[in-house]
Fold these 2 entries.
Entry 1:
Amino acid sequence: MLDGGEGQALFEEMNRQPLRCRVQVILPIEKPYDYLLPYGPDGTQIELEPGQIVMVPVGRRILPGVVWDGAADENVPLKKLKGIVGVSEVPPLREELRKFVEWVANYTLSPQGSVLKMALSVPQALENLVGQKLYCLVVAGENGEADAGKLRLTSARQKVIDVVTDSGGWTLADLAREAGVSSSVVKGLEKLGLIEGYFEAPDFFFPSPELDVKGPELSPDQKVAADDLAIRVQDRTFSTVVLDGVTGSGKTEVYFEAVEAAMKEGRQALVLLPEIALSSQWLDRFKKRFGVAPAEWHSDLTPALRRKTWRAVAAGKAPVVVGARSALMLPYRDLGLIIVDEEHEGSFKQEDGVYYHARDMAVVRAKGCDCPIVLASATPALETMVNVQNGRYERLILPGRHGGAGMPDVELIDLRFDKPERLQSGPGWLSQALRGAIRQTLEAGEQAMLFLNRRGYAPLTLCRTCGHRLQCPHCTAWLVEHRRFRRLQCHHCGFSAALPENCPSCEAEDSLVPCGPGVERIVEEVKLLFPEANVALMASDTMTSPAATKEMVDRIQNREVNLLVGTQVVAKGYHFPYLTLVGVVDADLGLFGGDLRAAERTFQLLHQVAGRAGRAEHKGRVLLQTSDPKHPVMQTLKEGDRDKFLEIEAETRARGHLPPFGRLAAVIVSGPDEGELDNFCASLARSIPQIDGTQILGPAPAPLALLRGKFRRRFLIMSKKSIAPQGIARSWLGQLKAPSRIKVVVDVDPYSFL
Ligand code: ADP
Ligand code: ZN
C-alpha cells in the first residue's frame, strides 16, 4: 500500500509531459525553437542547462544549436516537437555571451541565429573528441625523459615538436597536417618519448606567458597610463579608456602592461587589431615581451588550429587572444580586458552577413564581462572623442614620441604650381619638390616611402578615339589595369579579363590609354627617375600571405630596400627606423565621393602614413602633393593640429545632424531585376512613416548601382540622437514582405555609402 505522498508522486510521474526547452539554431532565424530534451540510457530525460551546445534536427538537416534561456511554450502540441539528438562535451556558452548575442542581434537588426553562428563559427570544435587519441609535448624533467631541445632532430620531426610546443591536444591527423609531415613522423616521435598520446577529455591549450619578466623601463607618462590600466584590470569593473598618443608614443608597450595585469588576475585578454594578417611585427614584439606566442584568430588559420583555438578559448586556456574583429565573438571563459588597437580603423566594421562595428560591440561585450576596454589610437574617431567629451569614455594621454624623437615636418606641395613633368614614356606624377626630396634621402643613405592608396597600374582605361571607358560588366565600376599580369580587374567583384588590343567599342588599334596612376605606375616612374634605387612595392595584392608580408617587412628593416611604394597597407603600425621621407602622391584622393567620413578618414590615413617617417634618431619629413592646399585636412595636417581638425569636423557634422550628433541606418535593397526592384522600392517609399525627429531619404540608386550583377537602391534613415533608428526600420520594413528575389539589408551606423 502506497502512502498518499508516494501515490501522488507516481501519479504525477505517469502523467508528466516530456520536458522541453528552447534551442537557438545557427540559421538566419530570429528566435529559438522548442525541442524535447534527449533521453538517457535509463529512459529518463536528461536535464540540460542554458548555454549547452546540442545537435538538433531542422528540416532534414542536423545542426548545432544552443539551449537558450526562457521556458519553452507548453501549448505547442507534442507531436510537432522534435527531439535533441546530441549534446556536445564543450562547456556551455556562458550567460554573458548569450546576452551579448541577443544584444548584437537586436542592435544590428540581425537574426539571433546569424549572430550566434559567428560565435559557433567552428563546427568541428563542437564535435566530441573523448576517446580519440590526442598528442602533446612531453616535458623534459628529472625522470629521464628525452629532451627535444638537446637532441638533433630531422627538420620534419622538429616541425612536429614546434607545433606541440606552441600548443597541446592534437589528433594524429591534425598534428601531421599542421606540421606538414606524414603521420609516421608523429609516431616516430612518440616512440622516442618526445611526445605522448592520451585519451582523456581533450586538453587544448596555449602556453602561459612568462609573467614578471621586466618589460622596457617606462617613461613617467607611460607609467602613469600603464598603472591606471592595471588598476582598472584588477578592479574587474567596466570602463572605456581611450589611450591617446601619437604613433611611436608607446601605446603598445603601455597596453602590454595591462595585458600582463589581466593574466596575473587569471583572466583572459583580447587584443583586436585591424588587420591581423599584416601584424607580423606586433606578434614578434609580443613573443619578445612574454616569451610565447598568443593565440591568433583570423581567417587564415588552418581548420585544425581553428578548432584548437576555439576550444582553448572556451576552456580558459588561451590567456591572450589577438585577432581580427571576429575574435570578439569567441566564447571566452573569463575575459578580463579588451584592447582595440587603431580603434579608428574602418576595417572593424563588418559589411556582410551581420553588419556590426567590432569596436562598438567590444564596448558592449566588455560591459557584460565586467572588464575595462582600451581604445588605442593616434587619431581617435570623432565618435570616440565625442564620447570622451560627454564623459562616457575616459582618456589617458601619451604626449610625445618615445625617446624624444620629434614629429615629422609636414609640407604641402601645391600641384597647381609644381606640376609633375612628363616622362619620356608618358605623364609623370611626382613634382620637382618631391623628386628632389627623394634624391636627397637616397643620397643620405636613408629610406623613402611613396604612398598612393590605389592598387594596380591605372584606375581607368580609356579609348583615345571614341572615348569608351572599360567598365566591369557586373558592377558600376571601371576596370583597373594590373600591368604585372597584363589584366584588367574589378576591385568590387573580382572580375578579371585580359587587356584587349583594340577598343572593344570602336575597334581602333593602339588606342587604349591608361588614365591616372596606381602604385604600379609610380613604381615604373621611380625606376626611371632613380635607376640606382632598390624599389619595392607593398600592396594588399602583392602581399598575399602573412609570410610574404613578413619577408617584405624584414627586407625593409634590413635596408635591402631604400625606396618603398605602397598603398594603405604600409600605414599599419610598422616601425622602420631608417625611413625618413614619406611622399603622398595624391593627398586629395580620399576626399571625394560624398561619404560623411571622407575628411576624417583622409586625415587619419595621412596622419598615420606621415607617422611612418623618422621614428628613430633621424628626423622625418612628409610631403603631401595636393591640389587643394587650403582644405582643412591639409592645413591641420601641416600644422600637426589633430584636435583642431576634430573641432572643425565636429562643427560640420553637428550642423548636418550627422553622426555622432544624429543617427543613421542605411537600407540597401538589391535584386537581379531592375523593374521589380524599382516597384518594390516605390511601395517602400509610399509607406515611409512620418515620425518627429526622423527623416527617411530615398530610394536612390546606390553609387554602386550594379554590384556583382545585382541592381541596388538605397534609403537612409536619419534620426535625432535620442531616437533609435532600429525601431523605425523594424516597423517600417516589417509592413512589407520583399519578393523572394529581392534582398533588404539594414546597415545600422553605416560606414560605407556605396
Ligand atoms: P605606439 O603603439 O604608440 O605606436 P609603440 O609602443 O609601438 O608605440 O612604441 C614605439 C617604439 O618605441 C617601439 O619600438 C617601442 O618598443 C619603443 N618604446 C616605446 N616605449 C618604450 C620604452 N619605455 N622603452 C623602450 N622602448 C620603448
Ligand atoms: Zn565588378
Entry 2:
Amino acid sequence: MNRRKFLTSGSTLLAGIFVAKNPLNVFADHHESGDHPHGHELPKLRYDYDALEPHIDKRTMEIHHGKHHQGYVNKLNAAIGDDHRLADQSIEDLLQGIDKVPMKIRQAVINSGGGHANHTLFWSTMIPGGRELKGKVAEALQADFGSINAAYEKFNNTAKTHFGSGWAWLVVDDKKKLQIYSTKNQDSPLMKGHTPILGLDVWEHAYYLKYQNRRTDYISAWDNVVNWTQVNLNYTTAMKG
Ligand code: MN3
C-alpha cells in the first residue's frame, strides 16, 4: 500500500459510480435464481491490459486475466456441471457455504471458485493512476491497527513474507473489524466468514514476467495502482452487511 496515499486522511465524497447488485460490488456474474445459461463468467476489466503500465505490464495482464482467470472460471463451471442447486449460487455464496458443497468437488470449488472470486476482486481494486486512501476505511485502519503506518507495514510484510503461492488480504471479519493476513493457493477469506475488501496476488504468475523473483518490487509497483475509492466502497458495504 502506498505510504503517501496511506498517510492521507480526511473526509471524502464517495463517488457512487460502482452501482452494485451484490454485497461486494465486484462479482459481476452473480446469478439470478433460475437464470444461469452460461454459468460463471470472466468479468470484463474496467481498463485496458496496458493501462496499468509500467507498474503491471500488458503481457502479464493478458495472461493473468485471459488465461489464468479464464481457466479458473472454466474449471469452476466444469466442477459444478449440471448441479442446479450449486449453479444457482453466486460465487460468494458458494465459498461462504463451502462446507455444504459435496466432498467430491469441494476442493475444486475451493481452488477454482476461490481463484475466480479472488481475481475478480483483484482487478476491481486496481485502476490506472491509483486512488487516494481516505474516508471510512482510512479511519478504520487507524482505529484497528493503531496507525495507518502500522497497517501499511503489516500488509506489506504479510505480502512479502508469505511463503509460496497465495494472497495478502485486508478483510472485514465477522466482528466487523479489519484484519490483515495471507492465505495459501486460492483459499478465499469468504470461506471463514470474512469479507475481503483488498487482495494482493503474490503467486509468481502475477509478477514473474516483469519482476522475476523480486516480489518486493512488484508489491511497491502495485502500490501505485490501488483503487482506494473501490476499497472504501467495499469496506462500507461490508460494514452494512
Ligand atoms: Mn493470479
